[in-house]
Amino acid sequence: MGAGRRTIKFIIILIVILILIIIIAASIGAAKVSLKETSIIIISLIPGLNALVDSEDLNLQDIAVISTIRLPRIFLSIFVGIALASSGVIFQGLFRNPMADPFVIGVSAGAAFGATIGLLFNSTVSFINISTTTIFSLIGALATTFLVYAISSIRGKVAVITLLLSGIALSAMLSSMTSFILMFQSHDLARVIFWLMGGLTSASWYKFSILAPTVTLLIMVSGFYMRDLNIISLGDERASQLGVQTDKVKRILLVTASLIAAMAVSVSGIIGFVGLITPHIMRLIVGPDQKILYPTSAIAGGIVLLASDTLSRVVLAPREIPVGIITSIVGVPFFLYLLIRTKRKVF
Amino acid sequence: MGNSISNIGTNNSILSVRNLNFSYGDNKVLNNISFNINKGSFTSILGPNGAGKSTLINIISKILGKFEGEIKVTGENITALNSKDIARRIAVVPQSTNPSFGFTVEEMVLMGRYPYISRFKRETKEDFEVIREVMEKTELTQFADRKFNELSGGEKQRVVIAQALAQDSPIMILDEPTSHLDINFQIEFMNLFLKLNRREGKTIIGIFHDINLAIQNSSLIMLLKEGSIFRFGEPEKVINRQNLNSVFHSDVFVGKNPVTQRMYVSPVFDPYYSTQDYQAVKPVKVHIIGGGGAASPILSLLHHHGYRISCGVINTFDTDISTCEMLDVPYIVEAPFSPISIISRNKNLEFIKASDLVILPEIEFGNGNFSNLVSIREALSLNKRVLIMEGKNIEKRDHTGGKAGKLYRKILEEGACVIKTHRQLLDNLKTDKPDNIYRKELNQQRI
Description:
The structure holds two protein chains of two kinds.
Chain A lengths: L2 H25 L7 H11 L14 H35 L12 H18 L7 H21 E2 L2 E2 L1 H25 L4 H8 L8 H19 L2 H7 L3 H6 L4 H23 L5 H13 L3 H25 L8 H21 L4
Chain B lengths: L12 E12 L2 E12 L3 E5 L6 H8 L7 E6 L2 E2 L5 H7 E4 L11 H6 L14 H13 L15 H14 L4 E5 L7 H17 L3 E5 L3 H7 L2 E6 L2 E6 L1 H4 L2 H8 L3 E5 L6 E5 L17 E5 L6 H9 L3 E8 L3 H9 L3 E4 L7 H12 L3 E4 L9 H12 L3 E5 L4 H4 L5 H11 L3 E3 L2 H9 L4 H12 L1
Parallel strand pairs in B: 3-8, 3-9, 6-7, 7-8, 13-14, 13-16, 14-15, 16-17, 17-18
Antiparallel strand pairs in B: 1-2, 1-4, 4-5, 9-10, 11-12
C-alpha cells in the first residue's frame, strides 16, 4: 500500500544526493573554492535563504564564478539529465523494450542535421544571443520526430515497429546528408563533431530558463499517464481490455517524450546512454512500477549527468572532455552487462 | 442460476447485439449477427478458425471499433461508453499475458482496478480490499510479492484471471483461457468459472478450443460459421453430428458421457488408416454382426473408408446402436435383454444375402445372441466371404457352456478368414483374391 510513501522516500534520498553533488561540482574548477564556502555562496544566492548565512567575508570573485559560470552549467546539466532519463523511461515503456532510449526514433540524427546547418549559418551570420545551432537542432529534432510519427500513424494508431523502422531509416538518411554537407564545409567538421559528442560548455542561465520550465511542464503532463504506461507493458490489446485508451495515451506519451528529448538535444548535443541506463539502474532499485520509476529516474538522470559533466571537467583539467565520452565510456560496459543479463532471461 | 435459458426476456438481457456487421477492409468478417445474452448465463462460442469468434468478442469489448449495427451492454449502447465504462462492465481473460517488465503479482492484479481509479488520484483502500479478496479467491495470496515472470504457466494464468476479477464486472469474456494449460489447471479454472457463474451470477461468454470443455459447462452454445450465427441454443439442441459437420467440415461422433450424462464429441475415425489407399474402390457391401459395442470401431472404420455397411442383430441400448444411428447405418434391433427372435434372425439373413461379405467382430456370445453365430455359418453356406476379428480366445467369450465355441471352430474350418488388425481388414477388403489364397499369404507373412 505504501507506493506513494516509497516514492517520496526515494525522491528525498535522491534529492539529498543531488544537493551534495551540486555542492561538490560547484566547488571544483580552476578557481579553488572550499566546500563550506561553496555551500554558503549557494545558500546566499537563494532568495529567502540568504538571510540565514553571513555572506560578508565571501570573495566576490568566487561568488561571480559560482553564480555565473558554474551554477548555470550545473543546473543545465541536471535538467538535460532529467530530460534524457525521463524520456528514456517513457520510450522503454512504450516500446516494451528495455533497449529503447530517447534517440530511438531519430531525434538525435534530426538534431545533428539541424545543428550542422545551424553551424553553417553561424559562420556567416553574426552572433545571436542564443546560438543558431541550438535553434536549428531543435527544429531538426522536432521535424524528424513529427515526420517519423506521421509516417507510422495510420488513422490515429501508431505501429511501434513502423515507428522504429521509419526512425532508423530517417536517421540513416539524415546522417548521410549531414556527412554530405560536411564534405564541403571541412573547416566546420571539428565543431560539428564536438557538438555531436555532446557537451554543456555553452551553458547559460538563459538556456536554463528555457529548458527547465518546458521540461518540467512536459514531465508533469506525461506523469499523469504512468499508470496507463504500466498497463501498456502488457501489450496494447490487453491494455485496451483493462480500460486504457491505448492509442490516445501512446500518442500523448510519444509526443511529450520526443519533445523532452528534442529540448535536451538542442542545448547539449547528443549525450548517449544517460537515457538508456538511468531507467535501468532505477528499475533495479525501485522496481518496474512506472509511477515510482518515472520521478526517481528523472532525478537520478540529473545526478548521473551532473556527475559525468563534473568528471569531464576534472579528468584532464584544465582540458575538458565532451561529456558524451564520459557517459559512453561508463555506459557501454553497463549496457553490455545488461545485454548479458537479458540473454540469461532475467528481464 | 446458470441455466436461465427458460426466462428469456429483454429485461433480463445483459448483452444484446443487433445486425452486427464488421469488415477488415474488403474482407467481411461478421455478417449480420444478432443475439441476446441473459444475465447469469454461460455461453460458449464455437467455430473453426476464421469463423469470427475473436473478432466478435473484440467488438463487444470495444477493442475493435467501426462496426455496423447496435450493441447494448447492461442496457447501454457501447458507442456511448468510454473504455473505462466498458472495462467496468466486461472483463476479458486472454489466453496469456506477457508483461515486458518484472511486475509483482500484486502489481499485476492491481492493474485490474484501472477502470475505477481517476488519472489524478491514487488507489483507494477499497481497491486494495478488492484485490485482496480476488487474490484469495484465486489462491494467490501467498504469491502477492512474487515476480509474475517467475511463476509457472498455470500460476500466471491465475494472475490473469485475478486481474479480470478485479475489474468487478458483471460480464466475463473468456478467450481460450485454458488452451495451453495442463489438465489439472483446465479443471481448476473451469470449476472457478462455474463457481463465479453459479454463485456470483457472473455472465460468462467463452471461446474454448476444446468443444467438450465448452459443452460440458455451458448453458448455451453459439455455433459460428463464416461470420454468421449457424445455431444458438442449449447444447443438446445445437451439438449434433450434422451441425458440427457443416460448421467444422469434419466428421465427429457425438456421444454421451456415461457418468455425467453430458454430451461429448470425438473424431469418428482412427486417423492412422485414413489414407487414400484404403478407400473402397467399388461399391462393396459389408454386413457386420454387432453386440456389446464390439462392432463400433469397425463400423466407423468402414464407414469412413466409403464402404456400404449394415449391422445386426443388436439389442436396444447397445453402444453399437448409437454408432449405427450416428453413422446412418441400417441395423436390426431386438428388444432389450431378449434373445434374438426368429423375425430378427430372418432379417439378418436378408441383410447377409444382400452383402458381399460378412464380418464377425470380437463379440461375446451368450444364449441370447447365439443365433448370430448361426447366421454366420449360413453366410458361409451362401458362399459369402466371412472375416472374423480375433484377439481374445473364444473360450473366454463363450458364455453358452461350450456351444458357441464349438460352432465358432466349425465356422473357422469351413473357410472363414481370421483378421488380427484393422489394417489387415482393410487390406483384405481391397483384395480380389479368394480367401483361401489370401489366408495362406497372411500366414506366410506372420512367419
